[in-house]
Amino acid sequence: MAQLSYHDVFWFVPNLIGYSRVVLAAMAVFGMYYEHPCLTFVSYALSELLDVADGYYARKLNQCSKFGEVLDMVTDRCTTTVLLTYLAQLYDSRVLALIFCLIISLDISSHYMQMYSQLITGKTNHKQMDQNAHWILKAYYTDRKVLFAFCFGNEAFFLLLYLNKYLPYYALYLSVPLTLAAFPISLIKNAIN
């Protein structure tokens, strides 16, 4: 195999997926602020589903990189921040706005501290855990099914909160129970943060 240059990392398959997530997130933002809920829902949901794909292909193709890891983490933080900020505006509630601001702060700071602490201890990835790490953190960061379930439930909860504001009344019979089912998952995920 030929020696890779620094610039080759930008063309890794998982990073190309990451760029498409950024474009989809931008489309979701456009959809939010121009009140196109279908565009918002589809583009945001696709961006989140591609979040699973970029990690899978990074491991499968042996294309893990610091750039890809940071691209993934920053995209995750930005998409969630934009959605929560919009939800605070959409629901027009000071209490919800405060809760969403706290969740944003917790999300950004906890991921930064996790990444930084792993780097200063010599780990190559923010998802590597010591044997002494709390069992919940180990399960969250090392079992991909657990991580997927919590991340999916969390994003589904917020995205359903968005969608519930635009759905016709009869559709809420399905949407509201799904939102309520996703709520405890989101709550636990944010507690783990």
Figure out the total of helices: 7
In N-to-C order, the SSE pattern is: HHHHHHH
Globally, the shape reads globular
Major beta sheet, specifics?
Answer: none
Proportion of β residues? under 5%
Helix content: over 70%
Task: Write a concise synopsis of the structure shown.
With 193 residues, the protein is mostly helical.
Report on this model:
- The termini are far apart.
- 77% of the residues lie in helices and 0% in strands.
- Helix 1 packs parallel to helix 3, helix 2 runs antiparallel to helix 6 and helix 3 (66-91) runs antiparallel to helix 4.
- With 193 residues, the chain is mainly α.
- The longest helix has 27 residues, at 94-120.
- The model has no long low-confidence stretch (mean pLDDT 90).
Attribute tags:
193 residues; mainly alpha; 7 helices
Topology, please?
Layout: H1 13-33, H2 37-60, H3 66-91, H4 94-120, H5 135-142, H6 144-164, H7 172-192
Helix pairs in contact: 1-2, 1-3, 2-3, 2-6, 3-4, 3-6, 5-6, 6-7
